[in-house]
Design goal:
Layout: E1 3-8, H1 14-21, E2 29-34, H2 36-45, E3 50-54, H3 55-60, E4 65-75, E5 82-86, E6 97-100, H4 106-118, E7 124-127, H5 132-138, E8 141-145, H6 146-153, E9 160-163, H7 164-172, E10 176-184, H8 185-190, H9 192-210, H10 213-219, H11 228-237, E11 238-239, H12 244-259
Parallel strand pairs: 1-2, 6-7, 6-8
Antiparallel strand pairs: 3-10, 4-10, 4-11, 5-8, 5-9
Helix pairs in contact: 1-9, 4-7, 10-11
């Protein structure tokens, strides 16, 4: 029975997906590409079964999903690819109008929490698909994520650039989990053995990727715009784990999101148990 897997084609997902696609086991799966916000919607509707999905998606609909253990896309400090580009220094952003990427849900809400809870700011925020230079004619700052953020960070703009992973770390001392590997509860209940097999393959792919960043960088599509050395360095700062500290970070994020009315309540974290499928 085929599992439909959401494939975020951002550089931060390249190591695990490269290692997974190198495995003969991947022929059992169907991969659906897209940006996080699109794949969140597909997972929500049941059109895909499993995805490294925006953390806030679980917070909004915890009854729909289970978390795959030991897997995430996280930062423990700077993340390099979730960046606020600003014409003004942070201390002058209170009340400013801020543009938000259309590609993300978690990072958008992380920015809202940081500005409100860490700095005490109130801001007018609006989604925009405008490129950076155009957006900053209308907004004081623009939040970009993923490859767009990486690409812009490599240019000289004369702008203030704030890394949201670093801001969260300074605020809480905890990892920030940008994406959780979510499986729909329907799939977990209906195909437990298949989900358990995929989970084992993902964990193995993660472990293989850790030792082969240089090789992955030498043949990935991103090398057309980012050096192999910079790609490997970028992947080394990302945490692909889901430890108790990571889960504490998730719970803290959900707590603040609940306080700001972003989600209805602080959800209970529910993990898929591979052993129960055997």
């Amino acid at each position: 029975m085929t599992l439909n897997i959401g494939h975020i084609k951002y550089a931060n997902c390249t190591p695990i997906f490269s290692a997974l696609l190198d495995s003969p086991a991947c022929s059992k799966y169907s991969f659906v590409g897209g940006v996080p916000s699109v794949l969140n919607a597909l997972l929500r509707s049941g059109e895909i079964d499993v995805c490294p999905s925006s953390s806030i998606e679980y917070g909004k609909s915890p009854g729909k999903y289970l978390l795959l253990p030991e897997l995430s896309i996280s930062s423990v400090g700077p993340v390099k690819s979730v960046l606020l580009f600003s014409r003004l220094p942070m201390e002058q952003l209170d009340g400013a109008r801020i543009g938000l990427t259309t590609d993300s849900d978690t990072s958008v809400n992380l920015l809202k929490i940081i500005l409100r809870k860490q700095f005490g700011f109130l801001n007018d925020m609006e989604r925009t698909g405008l490129p950076l230079a155009e957006a900053l004619r209308d907004f004081s700052a623009l939040l970009l994520i993923g490859d767009a953020a990486l690409r812009e960070s490599m240019k000289f703009h004369g702008l203030h650039v704030y890394d949201l992973g670093e801001l969260w770390w300074r605020f809480t001392g905890l990892p920030f989990v940008f994406a959780l590997w979510l499986v729909t509860e329907k799939t977990a209940l209906g195909k437990p053995n298949e989900v358990a097999a995929l989970w084992r393959e993902l964990v193995q792919a993660k472990e293989r990727a850790y030792g082969t960043y240089a090789r992955i960088a030498s043949r990935c599509a991103e090398r057309s715009w980012m050096s192999e050395e910079d790609l490997a360095d970028y992947w080394r700062i990302i945490s692909y784990e889901l430890t108790p500290e990571h889960l504490k970070g998730v719970d803290t994020f959900f707590g603040y999101a609940s306080e700001l009315g972003i989600i209805a309540e602080r959800p209970q974290i529910r993990l898929f148990s591979p052993n129960l499928s055997e």
